Amino acid sequence: MTADDPTEHDREQDRNAEPTADGDSGREETRADGSGAGPGSTGTSDDAGGQVDENSKHEQLDEVRENPEGEKLTTDHGVKVSDTDNSLKAGERGPTIMEDFHFREKMTQFDHESIPERVVHARGTGAHGYFQPYDDPDLGDEYDDIEELTKAKVLTDSDQKTPVFTRFSTVVGSRGSSDTVRDVRGFATKFYTEEGNWDLVGNNMPPFFIQDAMEFPDLVHAIKPEPDDGMPQASAAHDTFWDFASLKPEITHMIMWVLSGRALPRAYRMMQGFGVHTFRLVNDDGESVFVKFHWTPKLGTHQLVWDETTKLWGKESDFNRKGLYDVIEEGYDPEWELGVQIFDEEQAEEFDFDVLDPTKIVPETEVPVRPIGKMVLNETPDNFFAEVEQVAFHPGNVVPGIDFSNDPLLQGRLFSYQDTQLNRFGGANWDEIPINRPITERHNNQRAGFMRQEINEGKVSYKPNSIGDDDPQEASAEEGGYEHYAEKVDGKKIRNRSDSFGDHFTQARLFWNSMSEPEKQNIVDAAHFELGKVERVEIRERMVYDLFNNVDHEFATRVAEGIGIEPPEEPGDEMPTHDREDPSLSMENRTPDTIETRKIAVLLDDGFDDEHVSELRSALEEEGARVKIISKVLGEKSGTEGETVEADKHHVAAASVAFDAIVVPGGEQSVDAMRQQGDPKQFVAEAFKHYKPIAALGDGIELFEDVELPDVDLAGDGDDLVSDQGVVTCRDDGELDAFVEEFVDAIAQHRHWGRDPKEVPA
Ligand code: HDE
């Protein structure tokens, strides 16, 4: 959606609505029961018949939104403050006096304003939006109707937009670490459904490192900074992680994903999401099928390259956070399809892996993903702390129709998330914080605890009771009461790992086989970096001989050659011999034909060719790209025909790594100036090195010639328009339309892996 979309304008107006005199944000009050909603109540109630829509959560949040515009400064207790710069003293130069309540309150608030960061997934960002099921989704031959499978209205009622809040995160780094580190990304969505909150707390990779929750503290201790010196930050590239990994063959499949470009997402909006575990869908008759949840981004799944990410650590360390914020603020609403893989117990028995083992995926070649709805994120938070920091997810938050499997990792999570919130919030009432509240009414006998917000009326806080007519009453399944799937379970208590969890290499090999050659090279390069940082040679050896050589002999050999290890002579004893591939695993097969939201840098200086710039800008913006003018200094730049443009960024504050593509328009004076400057050349060389599309028009080609791009044909020798490996050049203004078309195609491809940019010293 672009800013021209009428619905976008409407929402934009709503967002910018003038605050009212009492500090209200101006959003319309549309509570179903018409009364003023207190923080404990909501826009929906049983009587209201569940009128949930995409604004239901916002209407609830409006009750606690505060806006200081035009207001006087007050203390926390509402007393107006006359001076907030000078503490109260005994005499002009005397000591501060204890009775200065404003000083004490201000300082106490400050002293206590940080809360413990999440033990994992500390760094992240989030946005509001909605989820809407598709009408009559295609579920293949076996199932006609989504309602046959689940009674969860959030997944079945296509007339309803359920409000959501989604938080994306890195896993290992602390709250202040960089966004573009090599890591798994969290993808957690809270659905504020009319039946209570459903949290789908997933990752951007479908397998996981370990099979049992019991191993999680060890995994996290191994990957976090080492306990003696607190290093390294936000990185797996150190001895303790690879020591742990090399002794845990079950980790192999996940390691393949973590070494791949999946661990370097270009943007949160260009990232898949996965529920990871097998869950259950349960219908009205209490029947169940297994399900895997998939989020598929509309813009495709794209990655950064390693060199680029390391530069971004310094130049734009909020790269992914800013990316999400900027596109939503600029009027583009990122969108994902929710897909399901559905299989029953009999099918599950047939697979050559256990569906309860979270180190396994269900390959799409076995069970296709069926899109059943879409999620749109369309509003940035008003306050980072109140919303992003305080949102608290819990995989145990499910609604009727969605249930758990016996995956031992999932089972352990059902304890951990509830528990961790006690640490983060210091008490059990974290569910009352506005961002965590359901939009449904809540009635139970919990009454107290730190920071209780709700004022529960009445004498009774127990069941059974006769004094209060035994309210609140339990609900039957027909009335919406949650009933767990009645799975038959019978077994001896046993502390063991099922044999069906024992194959650690088949799917790791499937992943390797499914990669294109450049993707394989990325994995090998990543292993060289990660294991190259490992000081103990025996750890490097175990990774190569015990794990990688059981995935693929050639892979193990290529890794060994870069890290000072003797390449293995034979494939490992456990190496599967299958040559199966699953095309859905390669990101190269996830590149839809769109350039929406891509950021394009136009390099110019005074004396640029007006026509080039205006044509480029309008054509690229029409395709949904975001065009930014980059010049040596900020301010207005003039073209040859007298047009002027404003530089969005100047060289000291801009870098090619923050852009998806570069274009250099013609104009002799402009290009001559840039040829005297190092930065534009650095821009071009670096973008080329990072496989990005680059383009030049007319005189602009001279800048490319200066950079000496290896083995690339440029327009000039007889050809007016040349497109070679994502380098598009044109010398004839008559070909401008064709040039733009070629450039747009090159941008849509995202990266041009066919290049060999090693010689480029950027
Ligand atoms: Fe988490 N995980 N996790 N995890 N996880 C947390 O909960 C945990 C796992 C995931 O944006 C913590 O509130 C255990 C798998 C996301 O706020 C904590 C195990 C998947 C987020 C926790 C796992 C995830 C978390 C830290 C193994 C993908 C961030 C703070 C048994 C399906 C949510 C918090 C947000 C956060 C525990 C494994 C995803 C400590 C014990 C598998 C996206 O409770």
Automatic annotation (TrEMBL):
GO terms for molecular function: catalase activity; heme binding; metal ion binding. Residues 468-477 have a biased composition (Acidic residues). Residues 1-17, 54-83 have a biased composition (Basic and acidic residues). It is an enzyme of class 1 (oxidoreductase). The keyword Oxidoreductase applies. One of its GO terms (biological process) is response to oxidative stress. Residues 74-471 form the Catalase core domain. Gene3D superfamilies: 1.20.1370.20, 3.40.50.880, Catalase core domain (2.40.180.10). Keywords: Heme, Hydrogen peroxide, Iron, Metal-binding, Oxidoreductase, Peroxidase. Its cofactor is heme. It holds the Pfam family Catalase. Its EC number is 1.11.1.6. Residues 1-95, 460-481, 564-590 are annotated as: Disordered. InterPro entries: Catalase (IPR018028), Catalase_AS (IPR024708), Catalase_clade2 (IPR024712), Catalase_clade2_helical (IPR043156), Catalase_core (IPR011614), Catalase_haem_BS (IPR002226), Catalase_immune_responsive (IPR010582), Catalase_large_C (IPR041399). It catalyses: 2 H2O2 = O2 + 2 H2O. This is Catalase. It comes from Natronococcus pandeyae.
